[in-house]
Amino acid sequence: MTPSEEQTGDRARTSGSAQPRRRPGGRTGRTRAQVLDAVRAELAEHGYDGLSLDGVAARAGVHRATVYRRWRDVGGLLADVLEATTSDDDWQPQDTGSLLGDLTVLNSENLAAMTARPSIAAALIAASFRSEEAARGLRRLWEDRYARCEVIVARAVRRGELPPATDARRLLVAATAPLYHHLVLLRTAPDPDLPAQAARAAALAAFAGAFGEGSPAGGASR
Amino acid sequence: MTPSEEQTGDRARTSGSAQPRRRPGGRTGRTRAQVLDAVRAELAEHGYDGLSLDGVAARAGVHRATVYRRWRDVGGLLADVLEATTSDDDWQPQDTGSLLGDLTVLNSENLAAMTARPSIAAALIAASFRSEEAARGLRRLWEDRYARCEVIVARAVRRGELPPATDARRLLVAATAPLYHHLVLLRTAPDPDLPAQAARAAALAAFAGAFGEGSPAGGASR
């Protein structure tokens, strides 16, 4: 759901994906790749507060004026990192053969991305509270990742694990939210069992019909 | 789970709680109350970026030197607002007579606190990404609120709704995390059905044994 180090780093640049590549080729494309790699490296090393256009230009070996003209400010750089992550990488959720397995692997990947040292994913989330451009970019990235994950629910429906009317997005949010709640909001030390536990709770809720479309909203006892 | 406007505002100051009051009385106590009210008002109106010791002193009608000496910086002010919220308010989760009802009301209160205009709760969460003191204070506040909510699970166990070995904290996080995930991280427009839906999903998972202590971590299909 969040970009892993690999996805935001080298893989996005070198991936041999057959999808159309939107990055312009030639010198402009190379400059962008150098600058975005420098942003990721600076962000990972110094966090949002240490990020500056001058520092990025120096690290990328690109002229300051070019960076200022094309990206304007730190928010512009972050937004472009997110855009590159979303459009260039070919991440798909793993197919383990079961809903529980798929959700557990997804949570494990998210935990690894968020607790890597340095974690670009965590730095981008923190930056989204500082820069409106970063916040917009991150919103698009979440949307893209949750959309890609809907196949997990579609596969479970095909296998007969879930009723066809299951609301994929609500199930995916239920499965993944506890991990982010701990790591980003509560800031509690990550429990290594959390990915599997949260996946299991969401799967059990789904099997019990919690995410059926048009299911009662649960107000009966209010 | 987060402080409501009422709890962080007038109620904390005027509450007739029978609990021992830790706030010192007399002029020092009045100064603190004036300053913390000013912090809440400035934060709500201008957000973290508009918060300054000078602005707080002016609004509170307290001498600048007093504010600088006692609270030092913006982080110190925020930490004290959180401390006052935690120690002075007598918030308890409502007892509706059912697990589903209790969790739904809890989520509804959290949604109201987070979407109030202005929302002090949302401002404090945003500030926690900027100030280490605010982050520490918020961590204590979350811990306090989740601890107070454990009675929801204890009541459900007493009623026979849940097995005695249910892990209260995991259940409470599962019930409340989706709301914060939408509001704080995904930043999607809040769905009015979300409090009830998330409560229902967590309750169904709990009834199915998802939060039983020592329950398998769900790795069976990996």
UniProtKB/TrEMBL annotation, chains A, B:
Keyword Transcription in annotation: yes
Record organism: Nonomuraea thailandensis
Domain of life: Bacteria
MF annotations from Gene Ontology: DNA-binding transcription factor activity; transcription cis-regulatory region binding
Chain residue ranges for the region called Disordered: 1-30
SUPFAM superfamilies: Homeodomain-like (SSF46689), Tetracyclin repressor-like, C-terminal domain (SSF48498)
Cited Pfam families: TetR_C_11, TetR_N
Residue ranges occupied by any HTH tetR-type domain in the UniProt entry: 29-89
Keyword terms: DNA-binding, Transcription, Transcription regulation
PANTHER family (alphabetical): HTH-TYPE TRANSCRIPTIONAL REGULATOR RUTR, TETR-FAMILY TRANSCRIPTIONAL REGULATOR
Protein name: AcrR family transcriptional regulator
DNA-binding residues (ranges): 52-71
